Amino acid sequence: MRTQRTLTHIRVNLTGDRVVCAMKRTANGGDFRANLSRGGSGRMVTLTATEQQQCVQAAKAVGLEFAGVDLIREYAKAPNFFITEINGNPGTGIIDITGYNYFVDLIMYIETKTGQTAQPPADSSTPATTESQEEARKYPDEYVALQQMDQHGQRMTATQNGMLAFFRVRYGRIRVQ
Q1: Distance from C-alpha of 138 to C-alpha of 121, rounded to nearest angstrom
Q2: Which residues pair with 85 in a beta bridge?
Q3: CATH number of the domain that 49 lies in?
Q4: Burial zone of 46 (CB within 10 Å; 0-12 exposed, 13-18 middle, 19+ buried)
Q5: What is the pLDDT of residues 143-152, one digit of tens each?
Q6: N or C: which end of the chain has fewer CB within 10 A?
């Protein structure tokens, strides 16, 4: 008698020696590929300690400190898993699925590793302006634009949300007009 196999596709994002988020991906319409970019869907999932350890080791084996690791869980008689791919650019769709912005972990990891925290550039060459104009100039234009979108309740993509979180960690929260 043949045993039925059930396969679960999982994307795991990690920074340094730590898994920061993971999602189960489901293929769309009979396609075997479960990538979100190919129309797949996802939901947050919890990994075993062994799965987490193996994902970190796999990323280290290819020299990556920030990665997306794909694994497949197989359920036949007992659960088993296989690492199938390691990505140096893990994508941003997982942020919408899990609600967890891993860019914050990446920034903290880089700052800890380098011992440096970036400061906003000082620009003394600009003429005196009003306080709100001066405040806005302290920050990158993209941060100001994203903050305005957020303050006005405009829908943002996962990438825009990630960048906004990055800027907030880097420069702190701001209010713009």
Answers
A1: 7
A2: 70
A3: 3.30.470.20
A4: exposed
A5: 888 888 888 8
A6: N
Nearest Cα neighbor of 6 from 61, 70, 98, 72 is 72
Q: Let me know if residue 44 belongs to a domain.
A: yes
Q: How many residues does the chain have?
A: 177
Same domain, 73 and 135: no
Structure tokens at 110: 């880089």
Helix H, strand E, coil C: the string for 39-97 is CCEEEECCCCHHHHHHHHHHHHHCCCCEEEEEEEEEECCCEEEEEEEEECCCCCHHHHH
Tens of pLDDT, residue by residue over 39-62, are 555 678 889 999 999 999 999 999
Cα 27 to Cα 35: distance, rounded to the nearest angstrom: 7
Tell me the pTM: 0.60
Q: Are 139 and 72 in contact, with CB atoms under 8 Å apart?
A: no
Cross-strand bridge partners of residue 82: 72
Residues of the chain with pLDDT under 50: 1-4, 120-121, 123-133, 135-136
Q: Which amino acid is at 86?
A: I
116 C-beta neighbours (distance < 10 Å), count: 9
Measure the CA–CA gap between 90 and 24, rounded to whole angstroms. 14
User: What is the domain extent for residue 65?
Assistant: 6-98
